[in-house]
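The instructor's notes for this session suggest beginning with a concrete chain rather than abstract definitions. Hand out the sequence below and ask the class to guess, before any prediction is shown, which regions might be ordered.
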Amino acid sequence: MKSTGFPITDLTRWNATGGIPDCSLEEAREYCRSLARKHYENFSVATFFLPRALHPHFFSLYAYCRWADDLGDEVAENAESLRLLDDWEAQLAALYSGEKPRHPVFRALGETVREFGIPQTVFSDLLSAFRQDRTVHEYATRDDLLDYCRRSANPVGRLVLYLARTTDDESFRLSDSICTGLQLANFWQDVERDQREKGRIYIPRSDRQRFHCPDEVFHVKRASTPEFQALLAEEVRWAEGFFEAGRPLISRVPKTFRLEVRLFHDGGRAILDAIRRQEFRVWEKRPEVGKLRKLRLLLRALLCRSPN
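After discussion, reveal the predicted structure:
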């Protein structure tokens, strides 16, 4: 297939009002496919075990999320990031109002939205969370953090369920639980990186106070004190509860999606296991899930088509 000639993502030149030439559906699909392949490390290998007819739809969903995430996280100035996110949402609203998309991502996404009946709110919730990342740098309570996860993580699982045509309330509830668990696992894995690179603290202040873990641990010491280790052990247990609660989803989705869901579930648990193995010392070393561990997770998911 010929190259589209579109940049993969160019946050310094792109704007929502123009600059992207008209393209065919085939070119838009290729653009999204190229974007997903370029960021392969963030694109689940399980996708490639799904029917080929679903690949373009996964690519279009990934491309939308990738662009939105980059607009929210890779633009230096808050005001500019928020403006670009507003422009991106304006294009989303235009798509749902029946206007012809200007950007190749929305050209491809329109086909997916129509085919699977995906509501606009699933996409707009993500943008709400990305805006919040620019203005909120810590959370007072667990409820506050869970509200953020509801908009930043849970929509991704729901998008997968729309492609699986498994959109009953119970499946949504189970998916939300797994996605929230995965988001929390990523937060606990990246405590040091989030604070150093973005000035963000996702461990709720109420939990930090309950374990007598002062702010200086995050802003000055940046070390795994005994109080911090006890705090993070509790946060890991909290996250594990979400994976356990969501586990029945593996057997509810069609067989062609079970590998994908199982890898989400088991991958998140593996992150928590890695944190526990290094005794919750995440300030000194970022916990990693090694290549051999990832291969074992994949093989187990391929061999075990049910949660039992």
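Then share the key points. The domain at 137-308 is CATH 1.10.600.10 (Farnesyl Diphosphate Synthase). The chain has a mean pLDDT of 87.
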